[in-house]
Specification:
By secondary structure, the chain is an alpha+beta fold. The chain is elongated, with a radius of gyration of 30 Å. The longest helix is centred in the first third of the chain and has 57 residues.
Amino acid sequence: MEFWLLVVIGILLIIIIILSIKILLVQKAAREIETEFAERLMTDTNTLIDISYQDKTMRKLAERLNIELRKLRKERHRFNRGDLELKEAVTNISHDLRTPLTAISGYLDLLDREEKSDVVNRYIETIKNRIEAMKRLTEELFQYSIVISAEYDLTMESLSINNVLEESILEFYGVLQQQKITPNILITENKIVRKANRIALSRIFSNLMSNAIKYSDGDLEICLTDTGKIIFSNSASDLNDMEVERLFDRFYTVENARKSTGLGLSISRILIGKMNGEISAQYKNGRLSICVQLPEN
């Protein structure tokens, strides 16, 4: 009796050992699939997932993932091709628009020197305003096509954020005053130094102040905290949460910003991303706050 009991126990131990080995091999195969799947998602390669374990179920899982990876690769190539075509189209359009706009502006200047009735003067002024709007759009399109290019690289240097922000505010102060906006400026006395591109950072600050002019109810607060966080906030009763969520989308403008191209904040987001920073918008109690944060050196 004891002999047969030992036999049964021995058989059970062998089964347990075999099952344990099988489980370990399945776990190893699962880790291989997880690792290779993550690598295939991050790189554009034709290499598919392959595992060392010959279990039918795990190999079937790998084959199914390979089918989805092939589909994903096709979609990625199609997207990249379409995105490249869009960039080229935007660049060409912006170039093509510049020449006729310059010619029209020249003829309007000549026409402006002639004697005209008040009605004609109003018409000419309206045309000039429309041309200026088209020039702004053309310039924004051109800048957008540049910054989204993979070849567009920013030269980084250690900058005093305090100084760049103060310079940007001074350059824009006259425009703010024309719109009857007196900014409340709160800049820390501590020197905040970050790796950034001066031109790109100045452009971001200018875009954010332009944004305040479009949407502000007449106020603007600019704050640089001890942690290096830059916050532009203003009352914006005409906005809502859905509009704020789309502020960084390209070509998106809200109804009350008719002079906007819808590219300024999108360009700002791309530029801040190229400097490894973050930009976000928050809308609370009728107040819009846009926060910019650059990583510490």
